[in-house]
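Quick illustration for those who missed Monday's session on complexes.
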Amino acid sequence: MSVLVLGGAGYIGSHMVRRLLDQGQDVVVVDNLVKGHRAAVAPEAKFYQVDIRDKQALSEVFEKENIDAVVHFAAFSIVPESVAEPLMYFDNNTAGMVTLLEVMKDFDVKKIVFSSTAATYGNPVNIPIKETDPQNPINPYGESKLMMEKMMAWADSAYDIKWVALRYFNVAGAIEDGSIGEDHGPETHLVPIILQAAAGQREYIEMFGDDYKTPDGFNVRDYVHVVDLADAHILALDYLAKGNKSAQFNLGSATGFSVKEMVEAAREATGVNIEAKVGPRRPGDPDILVADSTQAREVLGWQPKFDNVKDIIKTAWNWKEKHPNGYDDRK
Ligand code: UDP
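Prediction with uridine-5'-diphosphate bound:
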């Protein structure tokens, strides 16, 4: 039996593939390579270049492979892009989930672990955020993912497809051997942008807004190491394999760091005096997003190994130093 990783050529998906292989699992990857990198997929995994909205091609994968469970990372995830192109997000993310669930139903595959997001909460009413807090997304990305969660819930009641939604906060770092890492084109995420400045590929990092309601005025996020995040998916697969009911879990460290603190941590991690400037706020950024991930710890038994951002950034820097321009196959 194999685990199917949808979006396994992406940043988080490729780390998941490596962790599953480490555990001796058979892994099948489906990715359309619109954002992902073929070189990110471990050679031991079977690879299909398929778009999840292509029902026939996806069905052929399920026909050929003996799929036991699905882990779904194949979605667009950039907030400003979703605001500019909402239909692109509802098509790829939300409509893609319809096709996926139809094919899972056709082939009697009953388990799915899904990449959800803190963006489903919108502006938080409590900090830290609990799974039971209201979900009122403030952008199409968060809305598309919330709709996907709801679809899975109805597919559970109608077809008994069990699901775990893992709501990520901010993900950073790279596998410790530096062989795979974060490489988006164009890059929008904080840690890789800070490291571009450290590597001399940009003059400075622009910190978006210094007038947030936080102790230093810079907005605060909760950063988790990508391997710890992947390991939570493995625990979620075990949880479903044991016949447990569908559930949602926040994945965060419970400690928030401001943008300025992240720049300072990156200076320490790299030894480079990275230049930083204050710029205007980025639209749609809440002041603070910090997770309460007690449920993931207690129910799944999740124990993140990385508990400080400097160590997380060091692993991202290791990848950056080994691959200054990311994957050679980048488009
Ligand atoms: N950020 C920043 N400068 C950048 C990129 C990001 O100040 O060049 C800030 C952004 O406003 C947010 C945090 O860094 O507070 C994390 O942003 P990122 O895009 O990495 O993740 P998001 O929180 O949007 O998922």
